[in-house]
Every structure is written in C-alpha cells, then in structure tokens.
Design a protein that fits this description.
Layout: H1 8-19, E1 27-29, E2 33-34, E3 41-42, E4 46-50, E5 55-64, H2 71-84, E6 91-96, E7 106-111, E8 117-120, H3 128-175, H4 180-217
Length: about 220
Amino acid sequence: MDIKYHSEAEKKFSEHLLSLGYTKDSILYEPAFFANDGSRTYRPDFAIIDPEKKEYLAIIEIKADRLINNEEVLNQLKKYRHAIGNKKIPLFLVAVSSIPNNPLPFALYSLSEAGDLVKSDFNLFPTFRALTAEESAVRKNDIRQKKTETMDTFQRVSWFLAAVLFLIVIADIKFHFLTTERMALLGASVALIVIPFAQKFKGLGIEWEKAKNANRDE
C-alpha cells in the first residue's frame, strides 16, 4: 500500500531513509501516541521503530528552514520526548531548504538532552544499524547504572543489618534474651530483606543478557 505523503519533502526523506538501510516496517509515517496523562495525541512526521521489539528508536519532524528557530517547533519536539517517556530517545528536526535546486535539500538538527537544537551534517544521519546499536548501548548503560545503584543500596542495608545484629549479640551477653525461636525469627527477617535484592540482581542479569544477545545478532 502506497503512502500518501503531505509533501514532496516527506517523500524524498522517506526514500533517503530506505537508502540508509531502514526497512519499510521500521519507518512509521505520522504515528500516533498519547501523552503520559492521556490528555492529547501526538503525531510526529516520522518515527523509527524496532520492528521486532516495537520500541521507538527515534522521532523525526520535517519543517521548512524558516521555522527552525521557531520556539513553538522546539517545544513540540520537547513534548514528543516527554510523551514517549524516554529522555534519551534521539529527536531529529529535518529542515527543508527554501533555495531552489539546492544540492543539499535538507539540513539536520538534533535535540540535545538539555533541550537545545544542535546542527549536524545531514550526511551523518545515522543508518538503521547505527541507530539500533546506539539504542542497545543506551539500554546496557541504563542496566549497568541500575545494577550499581542496587549494589550501593544493598551494601548500605548489609552494613545496617550487621550493626543491628552486632548490637543484639552484645545485648544478649548481658540479658540472655536470644532464644532459639527468636534467632530463627531474626534469620527469617534478614532473609526477607536480602531476597528482594537477589531477585533484583537476577532480573538485571537477564536484561543484560537480552541486550547483549540482541547486539550480537545485529
């Protein structure tokens, strides 16, 4: 089924994506997604997705070059990022040249994490392979960060438990209140605190293996 583009520029850009190795099922034209609060629907010009995982890899907006410095356009891109809920997803603004017969019909801008438009060489627009590799690297970095945060929390909890147990043992020397039943209950309480961390580490390990295998398959 042929897509009816609103402009010749959108059609040419779609053809350019195909020339960079993007498959037709990875290119969504005017996809619709809701804001986090469900208050409104957003429709960027293009979205790049992972056809298998159905995850957004990039958002692309096409505008005339005279609108590049328009504050409304910048806010529109920021709203896309906020609605998707991924602060690191690449957002590109492709400017259509108003100069007739311009050998470079497009100019490329990207939205930084700080919310600023940064001009780039259009010839450096990422290929599909590069974009998926970048998404995989971001996912691995997020997993690594979560693992570090979990480890830090686990260490703090472990030191706290060790201090509490040490105080209990010291107190027991004088008061002799630690019965077998109470020691068993104490051990069970420690286990209930430790088990969630073990499950968290296991889950992060599974996520890491998935990300690593996905990158290897590419």
